[in-house]
Predict the 3D structure of the following.
Amino acid sequence: MNSEIGNGHEEKVIGGVQKKSGNTHRKSLKDSLDGELRGFLTDEGQLHTYDDLTKVNPVTPTTVLKCLQARYRAQVFYTHAGCTLVALNPFQPIPGLYSQDVMKQYHCAPQPQESKPHIFIVAEEAYRNVQGQVDPVNQSQVVSGESGAGKTWTSRCLMRYYATVAASSSLMKSQNTVERIERRVLDSNPIMEAFGNACTLRNSNSSRFGRYIQLQLDRSQLLVGASVQTYLLEKTRVASQPTNERNFHIFYQMTKGASGDQRKDWKMLHDQTFAWLPNAEKTLEEDCFDETVEAMVHLGLDAEKQGHIFRILAGLLHLGNITFCSATDESQPCDFEEHSEDFVHNCASLLGVPGQELQTYLRVQTLRAGKQSVLFRPCSLADCSVRRDCLAKVVYAQLFEWLVAFINNSMCAKKSTWCNFIGLLDVYGFECFQVNSLEQLCINYANEKLQQHFVAHYLKAQQEEYISEGLEWSFVQYQDNQGCLDLIEGTPTGVFSLLNEECRLNRASDAKQFRTRLETELSDHGSVSWDKFSTLPHFTVAHYAGKVSYQIEGMMEKNKDPVPPELISLVQKSQNPQLHQMFADRQAEDQGTRGLRQVVTVVSKFKNSLECLMKILHSTTPHYIRCIKPNAECRPLTFKKEEVILQLEACGIVETIHISAAGFPIRIPYWSFIQRYGLMSNLTGVSQGPGENGLAADGTDALAPAVTAVLNAALRSHPLDSSDDVASDRGSALVHCGRTKVFLTNSMLELLEEHRTRARSQRAFTIQCCWHRHQQRRRLARRRAAVLIQAVVRSWLVRRGVLSWNQAATVIQRSWRKWRALMNTLAEAELDDAEDLPEEEELDPILRATGSVQLQSLSEPVMVHGWPMGLALASAPTITVYMTATGFQKVMSALVCLSAHHFRSGEYQVETNQFKQGVASIRALPRGSIRLHYQRSPLLYADRCPEHNRDRVTGLNQILLEGTGVG
Ligand SMILES: Nc1ncnc2c1ncn2[C@@H]1O[C@H](COP(=O)(O)OP(=O)(O)OP(=O)(O)O)[C@@H](O)[C@H]1O
């Protein structure tokens, strides 16, 4: 990246004009602090990270410039400067900087201003202001800067942003309308640029007109329409182009992009050259005919209308090739040069006007003598050229105006459908050339007006507010340009008034005479000066951005902008419907206005339209975007400090920075302050609305003590110095309490915010504790209630269970008793038949004691309880059974066991004599053998083994067998 610093001449002379770059700027650039201290205050390595120029430390033009340069080097092109956005032109497309995703990102951000500085922040801020309906709801964005700084580019980006944002938030129903309007708004750009832009020395796509675009939004902030207002088209360019510059793009587009048929129609041969198309060999990306035609189609300009328009333009090109030569007889009109005959003919044919009349009126002036008689006076050679140029200028200007009206018709919504608007003002920046004339005076006057608006909005408003709030603060002196404005627009002794007066006097204009008049009338004005030694009459105006010297010669003629009436009548006869329509309207207009005031001069027209614009601006919330051209050669990524600082001063950024940084940029009404920060000193009880609290006797808001308490609390939170308060030195440097507002520096605001965050987190903690306690209590109470309910239910269930068990037990007992009684009876009856059992004393005492049956195998005795005895028997080869039949159940068990084993075959031997019958009695014989007497038992169920599959030893049997070692 290149970086060039100027050599700091006392006075920089640009185009014969003294720019305010001398002492001031050199001082600005050298007002740097001592190197070590500067290094301590500002980390130069981090300069590119500063998003706001008012935050660099210390805020001087030098550091600001360095910051901008560092950011530019890091390819960061947008930086805030207080309420203004500074946009540096990269002079090369930056991928992804304006993509749809980036637009959506800014649109959806909760706090867009906290994102990286971007043109979309300004766009979104304006859009949200409309959404929030904060007064004044309508918004305007003033994009300014010198030629080539990027104003048109920025306006295009803003338009694309709104088209996207409005479309993205639209409902399906309105999608078509939004797309249609959005498309049309965007399509108006290529047309306006083709007809209104040209390649100049300073910018290859320079807008030669100013424009104010109004984007109309409905209640839901959808884009429903748009309108364009244009200012001061540089129509002289049609007929005369400054050296090395070009005509309007549309002419080159036509000659380069026309088809064979079109060329034929427009009478343009391939090798045809046109005097009004200099530098035609230069090919620019703006020479894109197809794009213009496509946009025309989208906007509703059909092929027929386009044909008429292009024929008019081609006619003008042929007109430019007409040249004159003096007639041999001086009383006769000038002659056409030889080659011009064809061009006159072509021109007449393309414009659809009678060829003969065109030839006449280009060279002859008609003078009315009374109502009837008309005199013809041949024009001088110079006048002939002037008349030719006049015709071209008036036709082109009228065509441009018609196009703008057509675009407006196709985009503008009905007044009933929109309620708010966002306006984009793209105006030419401050201009000063070698030779400056009426155009520059008008342009610089417009810039003065806008600067005043800026000053009124920001700088002046700040100062006035400080004063009205009783704030004692040494202000940075800003340049009030009211003096300069009075010089230009003042009545009756302003430049414009005197110029108009001169034009209305029906006499030949004399520059020297007018200069003397100006000098006499304006001698008291401090903003005008005269170079007594200059040969050319001129006057020098001290504009806010520097001194500009205006040449008086030709100014009056330009102001009158006379159009020979015979030429107007000629085009009114045109067979070209477009041309005819354009001038039919003009006639009505001219007649009406001329009736009221003899001459409507250029400056009075311009002044009126500017006043309307200023009225609109004053009724809206303004946003400022200052485009900066980092180098005059339009080289990518080249930053020239000297050129940038001039522009920063010219657009008032330096003043903005000073005021923002030195003063108290934040001001909050007392009531709002208490609302936000009252919690820091437990002032939450303050509930009055704004203004309800009234003012104290000295005009101070009655909330002042409360505010002071909050501020003191914040100031005393300083870890090192807790004795600070509002009145202390540190306090008064950070904050000031006005009559109704608190004025804060950024650092005080940060301190307050920090304090507030802490206070809020303390409150949040307390609330959380209370809430947890409350939750805990509720949980405990619920648990207790649940336990109680469970206890009651369980006891009820137990009671119910016990009751049913009791009943069941009673039933079982009863049944059991009944059954036992029955068994007893049966057993008794059975045992009555049995033979005598051995005496009790003969039994083994063990058997008697245990009540068990002992099965004596040959190897070892086996004790068997209950029915598994059968198995034991089965596994013993020879068995001797001793039984103590102390109970009937035991006997029955033995019976069951013994009855079971007979189903097993072969492995053991049991002596039975009644195999198929049940055991009727058991006898233990003295020799150790057992004798079983079977008979059918009435207790059939007792024979049954619980195991159905008697062949297998499973379950308890298995366990028992294992336990006893059987098997
Ligand atoms: N943000 C940008 N990114 C890339 N290139 C840019 C940007 N802004 C401007 N340019 C380049 O700078 C050129 C000049 O910009 P633009 O035409 O917008 O200037 P201007 O201020 O409107 O000039 P004028 O007053 O002469 O119309 C553009 O053609 C474009 O090439």
